[in-house]
From TrEMBL:
<feature type="compositionally biased region" description="Polar residues">
    <location>
        <begin position="1"/>
        <end position="10"/>
    </location>
</feature>
<dbReference type="InterPro" id="IPR003795">
    <property type="entry name" value="DUF192"/>
</dbReference>
<dbReference type="Pfam" id="PF02643">
    <property type="entry name" value="DUF192"/>
</dbReference>
<protein>
    <submittedName>
        <fullName>DUF192 domain-containing protein</fullName>
    </submittedName>
</protein>
<feature type="region of interest" description="Disordered">
    <location>
        <begin position="1"/>
        <end position="42"/>
    </location>
</feature>
<dbReference type="InterPro" id="IPR038695">
    <property type="entry name" value="Saro_0823-like_sf"/>
</dbReference>
Length: 150
């Protein structure tokens, strides 16, 4: 589902197994300020967006993305990591459910968009893209930080 104007390879530090959490930090709180108190709901200005994440760590996995899946769990994310920030696009062809997408550069949110099933399109500057269930990124704003924790 993720495309770019140039071919990029996935960075090795991308989540490669379930169990890696995707954590949101509001712009007013730095990412290294402490642990999340409630791992499901979060607290204060930070919260867990996804309790488990997979990496699209090959060109095939990047091209397939969430296509042909019937649904994804409420606490799941698919993460695309690339070498360098550039304009990256997403499509929803063969994805029968809505998602929230976050475009990140060095962990900072540059764009957030809800993509509609089958016809959604999005483009933004990113070195990382995170795909989440629709509604999971509510409250995430441009300028906020997102990090990955084991």
């Amino acid at each position: 589902m993720a495309n770019s104007r140039r071919n990029g390879t996935v960075k090795s530090r991308a989540p490669d197994r379930q169990g890696v959490q995707v954590v949101h930090h509001a712009e007013s709180e730095p990412a290294d300020s402490g642990a999340v108190a409630d791992e499901t709901a979060g607290s204060g200005d930070h919260r867990v967006l996804a309790a488990s994440a997979d990496a699209a760590d090959s060109l095939l996995a990047q091209a397939r993305g969430l296509m042909f899946r019937r649904s994804i769990p409420n606490d799941y994310a698919l993460v695309f990591r690339f070498d360098g920030a550039t304009s990256r696009s997403l499509h929803m062809l063969f994805v029968p459910f809505a998602i929230d997408a976050l475009w990140l550069v060095d962990g900072e949110v540059t764009k957030r968009k809800r993509l509609r099933p089958w016809v959604g399109l999005g483009r933004g500057e990113a070195d990382t893209i995170v795909e989440l269930p629709a509604g999971a990124a509510d409250g995430v704003d441009v300028g906020d930080r997102v990090e990955f924790r084991p």
